[in-house]
Amino acid sequence: MKNTLPTSRRGFLCATAGVSGSFALGIELGGAQALEAAENANKRINIWVEIAPDDTVDIKFARSEMGQGSLTSAPQLVADELDASWEQVRISYVDANEHMRRNRAWGDMATVGSRTIRNSQDYLRTAGATAKAMLLTAASQKWSVPLSELTVNQGIISHEASNRRTGFGSLAALAATLAIPEEVSLKDPSGWHIIGKSVPRIDIPASVDGSQVYGIDIELPDMLHASIAQSPVFGGKVRTFDAEKAKGRRGILEVFTIDEGKALVVVADNWWRAKQALQEVVIEWDNQGNDSIGDAELIAQFTMALSAPEAAALPNNRGDAETALASSKTVLEADYYTPFLSHSPMEPMGATVQIANDRVDIWCSTQNAEGCLVAVANALQRDVTDVYLHRVQAGGGFGRRGGGDEYAAQAALIAAHLRTQRPVKLLWTREEDMQHDFYRPLGMYRLKAGLNEEGKITGWEARIASGSILNQMRGVPLARGVDGPATEGFLHLPYEIADQKQSYKQVNTHVPLGFWRTVGWSQTPFAREQFIDELALAAGKDPLAFRLEHMPEDELSRHILEVAAEAANWSSKPVQGVYRGIATTEPYGSYTAAVVELSVDDSGAIKVHRIIQAINCGHAVNPLNIEAQLQGATVWTLTAAMWGEINISEGRVMQSNFHDYRMLRLAEMPHVEVVIANTGGFWGGVGEPGQAPLLPAFCNALYAATGKRIRKLPLHHFGYRFA
Amino acid sequence: MQLLVNDELYEVDVEDDMPLLWVIRDVLNLKGTKYGCGIAQCGACTVHLDGELVRSCSMPVVAAQGKAIRTIEGLSKDSSHPLQLAWIEHQVPQCGYCQSGQLMAAAALLEKIPQPTDADIEATMTNICRCGTYVRIKSAIRDIAGNYYEVAEAAKSKLEEGGA
Question: Over the range A466-485, which residues count as b (16 or more CB within 10 Å of their CB) and which as e?
Fold first, then answer.
């Protein structure tokens, strides 16, 4: 396969020869000083590749690192096409300010939707290939030899006939002056030497000695510290407050409200002092009428939406489901419920902002560098090109740091209120984080399907009742009334069913919604893949055989399902007392299947004996990192299945910290076997897909063990726990 | 008030009830120890106090007076602690935020029980990792537990070679 990508339509691959450092610092040097700096500086071959005189290759990374590993895997794509050796590669963040000033030259910075590799791979590989082509052209010119006689391997360019060899460093200055080629050929996967290799993650050494810097770790001279209280009831505002007592405490500078009273802030010389003082501020909140809403009201609202006459049809509807159901031998119907969930990354929200006359500096853990700049620029009503973001690692993200970065805007508002040029660090408590998240939407699903005499599905109906994150968060209108993320999992069934009628009904509540790792795919398979099992059992068939029977021959889900089944030795019975469940899904451009083996004792203690997590993500960039992501996704799924639930009472979140929003711990962690079974030919996501099939596979296994179908989460309400 | 942290004596002027975590982080500026929950649930703030594991977010600084405090910065001078090497070898961290606490917990475990059973590991390693690195934490500890001293010696001589 020859991948040829025209580079002309990729405007951001424009040549920018010269001193990259001047861009990064936002200053221009002049005269002899500039010449000297230019001699010694890295040469920017294109916007992704800089080469130093000592052959070091500096590869730029535009997205964010929050543990998902793409700070390492994205540059692997560039380095491979460049034919560099991985040992000569250094990685640095793209300056978000320069990115904005240059018309978003580095493309999308949002690190969400498992998209860093799958949505960047074409331009990142092309960047490596064009840089290599330019270095080769430079060698050809310098040595006056034909281009066709040059070879490049592991960062060394050679001309065999004249026995000459050189590293990239000596050619970089010349290469940087050349035009970027219009077209380059990308390698066939058989020629990859860094893509597909589990190179160690670049950020890990700093994570074992405490030197990794997260947003919370920023320490600047004369820094002030802020602690914040937002209205416990969503949408509420401060009516009045009494800070008399708080102000008398040591180190307290000021107590005030920001953002039209949506939050109250204490600023001190030390964060703990600010937090302690905040607890002594007496605040009267105006709850804006939202303090009567609780779980019962919300569930009633969603239940009504399940049978509301007006709902939006999904675009993949076909045939006549009603007639098909009417003529079925058996008809099954079931409702499924998934609760609101909090992200709770280990690093709580926060940001540091310093406002000077001519610029604003931010230090912040974010999943979206440009979004963070925009949030702060808007809060201060300044031009985005005045705002500079200092990139740091995020202490987990999972979607929480990719939805508007309101904590960065708050830090900016606090610094502006103080009219100070001193840096101000805002840090939320864990309690603020848990009670002022934007939550994985509550979702309810009503499924109905029929079986014929042969035990095959005749017709299929699905109603999805859930919020729309994009509509609620950003006012994005729904296309024909259907929200994509809420319905993913139903938009393409891997099963051949001629008559399908699926619909979506948006449910708006006062609870803020956000993208939670795996988004709709963390919920919809809970309904879809359990219901498929219900149908299989009603048909008297094996759940694997029943699925395969309904899948087209060319369906890639079939492949991954068979891979998982084989890894689990599905065709042989598990040992006495151990039960299995299986499920398959198609999330984020990948194909995933899971098998769970478990046993349950009379007290409800679940012992998970084995988990198979199988993925076909097309091409694997860093297999060991893929394994890590699927192990992590396993923890997410088991945590959410057993305990995950955000409850609403009197308009506010009832949970507040890890004592009542429980997380899986090491002692409860089962054995996970990750199987990467790639077919090539496409690039799928990796960070999120692991959760999608695991939840229903786990619940299907639980049904096999107990005979009780899990239609509502979390499990601990039904007497279950992990052994 | 005087504090002994990583074998260095510090004089600090803080309230008695300021949690040890915030003194370590914001007064001594040792940022490797993390804040995660503030209620001794998650273990991101784990340090050693006279060799014992404590969750520094919930311990008033006054209680640490006169005791030897060890933080992640004091686990080794050069990332050469066998556990740090094993953490890299096994590619344990994801976001890395909880790993200082995980490493301090594991180090205390191995100092007490050089060859822990799985049950020992499970009993001590109660720190929360939201990324879900548990499988690799367990493998890394198991790996090191069998040959803790050999690995430590090998790491030491490797560093000496590098320095020569």
Answer: bbbbbbbbeeeeeeebbbbb
Q: Using CA coordinates, name the residue in chain B closest to A429.
A: B37
Among A198, A207, A607, A691, the residue to mutate for chain B (most B Cβ within 10 A): A207
Which residue out of A346, A635, A655 would a mutagenesis test of the B interface target, given it has the greatest number of B Cβ atoms within 10 Å?
A346
B117 interfaces chain A, CB cutoff of 8 Å: no
Q: Write the residue in A66, A658, A672 that is nearest to B42 by C-beta.
A: A658
Collect the ranges in chain A with pLDDT lower than 50. Answer: 1-28
The residue type of A264 is L
Structure tokens at B13: 């002027």
- A/B interface, count of CB pairs below 8 Å: 180
Asked whether the ipTM of the predicted complex exceeds the cut of 0.85, the reply is yes
Distance CA A274, CA A227 (A): 6
Amino acid at A642: M
Whether chain A has a CB inside 8 Å of the CB on B145: the answer is no
Whole-number Å distance between alpha carbons of A305 and A678: 40
What is the pairing mode between strands A424-427 and A350-355? antiparallel
pLDDT tens-digit series, residues B54-82: 999 999 999 999 999 999 999 999 999 99
Q: End-to-end distance of chain A based on CA atoms, in angstroms?
A: 51
3-state secondary structure A458-512: EEEEEEEEECCHHHHHHCCCCECCECHHHHCCCCCCCCCCCEEEEEEEECCCCCC
Q: Among partner residues B96, B125, B132, which is closest to A636 by beta-carbon distance?
A: B132
Q: Are A209 and B133 inside 8 Å of each other by CB? A: no
**B126–A666 C-beta distance less than 8 A:** yes
* Beta bridge partners of residue A201, listed in sequence order: none
Q: Which of these, A337, A305, A299, A295, lies nearest to A507 by C-alpha position?
A: A305
Residue B71 near chain A (CB below 8 Å): yes
Contact B44, A346 (CB under 8 A): yes
Residues of chain B with C-beta less than 8 angstroms from the C-beta of A631? 132-136
CA count, 13 A, side-chain hemisphere, A421: 4
Nearest-CA distance from A656 to chain B in Å?
10
pLDDT for position B37 = 98
Instruction: Tell me whether residues A348 and B35 touch, CB distance under 8 A.
Output: yes
Torsion of CA A628, A634, A636, A640, to 10 degrees: 180
- The beta strand positions in A149-235, using DSSP E, are 150-153, 156-159, 164-167, 183-186, 224-230
Residue in chain A nearest B42 by alpha carbon:
A658
In angstroms, what CA-CA distances link A294 with A432, A511, A640?
A: 19, 10, 21
> CA A675, CA A626: separation in Å to the nearest integer?
10
Return the structure tokens found at B121.
């590991």
Is A209–B73 a contact, with Cβ atoms under 8 angstroms apart? Answer: yes
- Model confidence over A38-90: pLDDT tens digits? 667 889 999 999 999 999 999 999 999 999 999 999 999 999 999 999 999 99
What is residue B40's DSSP assignment? S
Tell me: pLDDT of B162 over 80. Answer: no
